[in-house]
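Anyone opening a protein record will find just a pair of labelled lines. With that in mind, the following record should read easily:
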Amino acid sequence: MQQLKQIKNVELEYDTVLEVAQNTLELDDLCYLLMPLGLKLTDNHQTYLKLKGIEILHCIVNKTPHSLLRHKGYMDLIQDQVKNLLTWTSDIQIFQSSLKLLLALPCDFMSELLRISVYCQDQSLQELFQTFLVLVKRMESETFKYMESLVGLCLDHLEQSFALLQLVLETCWPAIPNYSQEILSVVGEYLIYNGDLAKADPVLKLIATDKERISDFKLLSELLPSLHRYIPTEE
């Protein structure tokens, strides 16, 4: 702590500040020094400085009681900064680091991420799907609030989202039969155009447990004989 307080200009010696933050077990008494620098660096236009700022904020979140961060208003500032970073950056490194910081925050960012997903492409979208996987596992039954949006997002980007779609189905199954016909239709179209059956298999097995979809499987199997395996045998 004393080492950090002795630094005359924390803005010019951010590497030293970051090193101290990383090597200090608790940052309760240093937040007032670290927060302004972390926020200022994340606002900088240079990528490497933004990344330094994100690392400083990450240290603060991980090494300071969240109750203290809320009391001082720091938590709201960090959350707002993460939203800005994810919304406006086109740099994949910044996007990845911001998502890691987001996962350290004790808040529900699902609505914000669903909004951001509309503007994401390629690698950023893939990183976002990995983050959704972590959030759905963490939220469990709370995922019901976002089920419709998550299913819609997965169907719009099916090739990239089978793992997430499977997890949403497993987590929200009591309500998923309402969407099973739409899901089967999109997955069927994907398979018709040379999609990967092995990738789709876990989702198809879940959809097949909805008895109302048996007739749909029979129709699709006329085009895709491989789908016969999902039709229960008649006794």
DSSP finds 14 helices and no strands in the chain. Residues 122-139 form the longest helix (18 residues). The chain has a mean pLDDT of 88.
